Amino acid sequence: MGVLMVIVGVFVMVLCMSTAVLRWNEMRYRKKGLAPGTMGWPVFGETTEFLKQGPNFMKNQRARYGSFFKSHILGCPTVVSMDPELNRYILMNEAKGLVPGYPQSMLDILGKCNIAAVHGSTHKQMRGALLALISPTMIRQQLLPKIDEFMRAFLSNWDNQVINIQDKTKEMAFLSSLKQIASAESSSVAQQFMPEFFKLVLGTLSLPIDLPASSMFMLQARQNILKILGQLIEKRRDSEESHKDMLGYLMRNDESNRYKLSDDEIIDQIITILYSGYETVSTTSMMAVKYLHDHPTVLEELRKEHMGIRERKRADEPIEWNDLKSMRFTRAVIFETSRLATIVNGVLRKTTQEMELNGYVIPKGWRIYVYTREINYDPFLYPDPLAFNPWRWMDKGLESQNYFLIFGGGTRQCPGKELGIAEISTFLHYFVTRYRWEEVGGEKLMKFPRVEAPNGLHIRVSSY
């Protein structure tokens, strides 16, 4: 009986102390004018609840406090915005003190010249250099032929195989980008480069929280990548050969290159190109294969579009710009896949000064989590939102709506949007015109904090 009383006493004491600590932490953030919400534990905040409950955490907090509330979920005090109009305002007003809010550890890994790390005139310079590499003219003349050549070879010899489409699309996204960046050397450096790149991606795509141990792991991968790219640049400079690829353009010193960059800036741009498109291209491609498998009517319509293109061509004739522009239903499938799977949950901003937003005070240095996930499932914006219905996107007006934030918004809208669509479209073209497939294994998919198949997504492929 005495032991039981001691256990009960300890339990009551721990409960009282926990309540006191929680209350003390809430008092710390009871500044007049702050948005409603809870802050959880000191240091850790509500991150555990956020990870455990996923989107339900956001829904529950919105039910209690509305679409604009405070929390402590991403390593520091954070205001979460789930209002479509307010989200658009935040994304469109970087000049008013709403700069990118990613943790310093993540920016260190991606590089100080990474487009997510800079703002103001530097961002304008780096974005200009990036857009020059992936403009419609560059896609049409330089990049699409490389993409087509790569996809044609990559998707050969899949007949009568069981493959993990998750691994295949990851490999595809990386190697396709590498070929566009350094076409001549892509094959020779891929084996050394790819594992280091995957290490870099592994930590930064989980959640944007400063974790020293994982940061050290990724920083080592970055150092290895810097060495590989530095040697590649040095070798090209010594050879004095001209190359018609992204790296060749970045290294040009003539008047045709308006954005002359240092070697460090060139390397950070290459990492930006590889990193920014990798997750979206690979995951969207995997999920498109999944959704097409589950929706035969959609697959039939998509295959009809691509068979029509093939019928107009010789067997060895590549996909060209006009073919790409004619893939209207393919574009709709890509948008619907991105919406329903929600590849990106939201974006982060940080305040550079205390400001008022939505009637509430946001202190300097707080993050704003522009949480766009729930917009994708709003029945007023997307009728029957849980249905996979690419036909909804055949009305081009839907793509131009203010709440369309699948690719970000404002000056930070994904600059590689059209390039990514070109890669996924070309992948789907050769996949659906060559093969049919069925799932094996029945693996489960995770949708949060990122879309992935923990045990892979295996399919049995056969000739069409």
From TrEMBL:
Biological process annotations from GO: brassinosteroid biosynthetic process; brassinosteroid homeostasis; response to light stimulus; sterol metabolic process
Keyword annotations: Brassinosteroid biosynthesis, Heme, Iron, Lipid biosynthesis, Lipid metabolism, Membrane, Metal-binding, Monooxygenase, Oxidoreductase, Steroid biosynthesis, Transmembrane, Transmembrane helix
Top-rank taxon, per record: Eukaryota
GO cellular component: membrane
E.C. number(s) listed in UniProt: 1.14.14.179
Major subcellular location class: membrane
Subcellular location: Membrane
Uppermost EC category: oxidoreductase
Coiled coil, from the record: none
Membrane topology summary: Single-pass membrane protein
GO molecular function, one term: oxidoreductase activity, acting on paired donors, with incorporation or reduction of molecular oxygen
Residue stretches spanning the membrane: 6-24
List of residues binding heme: C414
Cofactor: heme
Alphabetized PROSITE patterns for the sequence: CYTOCHROME_P450
InterPro entries found in the cross-reference section: Cyt_P450 (IPR001128), Cyt_P450_CS (IPR017972), Cyt_P450_E_grp-I (IPR002401), Cyt_P450_sf (IPR036396)
Catalytic reactions of this protein: 6-deoxotyphasterol + 2 reduced [NADPH--hemoprotein reductase] + 2 O2 = typhasterol + 2 oxidized [NADPH--hemoprotein reductase] + 3 H2O + 2 H(+); 6-deoxoteasterone + 2 reduced [NADPH--hemoprotein reductase] + 2 O2 = teasterone + 2 oxidized [NADPH--hemoprotein reductase] + 3 H2O + 2 H(+); 3-dehydro-6-deoxoteasterone + 2 reduced [NADPH--hemoprotein reductase] + 2 O2 = 3-dehydroteasterone + 2 oxidized [NADPH--hemoprotein reductase] + 3 H2O + 2 H(+); 6-deoxocastasterone + 2 reduced [NADPH--hemoprotein reductase] + 2 O2 = castasterone + 2 oxidized [NADPH--hemoprotein reductase] + 3 H2O + 2 H(+)
Family (UniProt): Belongs to the cytochrome P450 family.
Name used for this protein in its record: brassinosteroid 6-oxygenase
